[in-house]
Write a structure and sequence with these properties.
D-Maltodextrin-Binding Protein, domain 2; single chain; 10 strands; 9 helices
């Protein structure tokens, strides 16, 4: 009797461990810049339809937040999508005795930083690319921003931080007058906007990397194949992002072979 009970316990324990390992193998953990939410939510949905066995755990945040979860919180992650300068500086440092968390990145899309507003916003009929700072400095004007670290133009202004989707809703509902956010978000929210920054000063870029020791490497490669491929490019374009064609890589020799076809040779 005792032997039978012991065997039953052993079998139950084996099945529990097997199920736990299977669950762990069928996950994909992504930390990404919330400015990409418009495309990422759709692409994650498509990925889950193609691979229903994989549970995607995606966390949008500020670009710095996506990186700091790896460095400071030591979180497990399979894929980081954020500002390429942050990835290169913080996850791929070249300083001696500084730990490196990734060997490569692929820059695949860009955006523009704009000031978005609605017809109901205070001084909506006056603001333009020449007087925007004076208008935003006026008393009673309510301003929001998606990433205070990325937007130097807000210095001296009273600004509240919101997630990108919260900003578009707040401006559309009249809770905010103006929002500093990516052009793609302004277009999705059907907001008016001005683009006061010229050239690279107003450019926002997005890059992806798979950190060293990613627990679900195969799934991360599968998702990047979707993101960088024709389907992902179509979604990005439809959501208002500017495609970088071909994609640009840092550490190209370390880029997984499966992804090199998407990257330029320069």
């Amino acid at each position: 009797m005792r032997g039978a009970i012991a065997r039953l316990i052993s079998i139950s324990l084996f099945l529990f461990i097997l199920l736990a390992c299977t669950y762990d193998e069928e996950r994909l953990i992504i930390f990404y810049d919330s400015a990409l939410s418009g495309a990422m939510e759709e692409l994650i949905g498509r990925f889950e339809k193609i691979h229903p066995e994989v549970k995607v755990e995606a966390e949008p945040s500020e670009p710095m937040g996506a990186v700091c979860k790896v460095i400071d919180l030591r979180r497990e992650v399979d894929l980081v999508i954020s500002d390429p300068e942050l990835i290169e500086r913080m996850l791929m440092p070249r300083k001696l005795f500084t730990p490196s968390y990734a060997d490569w990145l692929i820059k695949f899309a860009a955006d523009r930083l704009v000031i978005a507003y609605a017809d109901s916003s205070r001084y909506a009929g006056e603001i333009n690319a020449a007087n925007w700072r004076e208008v935003l400095s006026r008393r009673g004007v309510r301003i929001g921003c998606f990433d205070t670290a990325r937007v130097p133009m807000i210095r001296g202004l009273k600004v509240k931080r919101y997630e990108v989707d919260e900003l578009t809703r707040a401006v559309g509902s009249g809770d905010l007058d103006y929002a500093l956010l990516p052009l793609s978000a302004a277009l999705r929210g059907e907001l008016r906007y001005i683009d006061p920054l010229k050239g690279d000063a107003g450019r926002i870029s997005y890059a992806a990397t798979i950190p060293k020791g990613a627990p679900h490497l195969r799934h991360a490669l599968m998702f990047l194949d979707l993101l960088l491929g024709e389907e992902g490019r179509r979604v990005l374009r439809a959501k208002g992002y500017q495609l970088i064609t071909p994609a640009e890589a840092k550490g190209r020799s370390k880029v997984p072979r499966k992804l090199r076809r998407y990257v330029g040779k320069g």
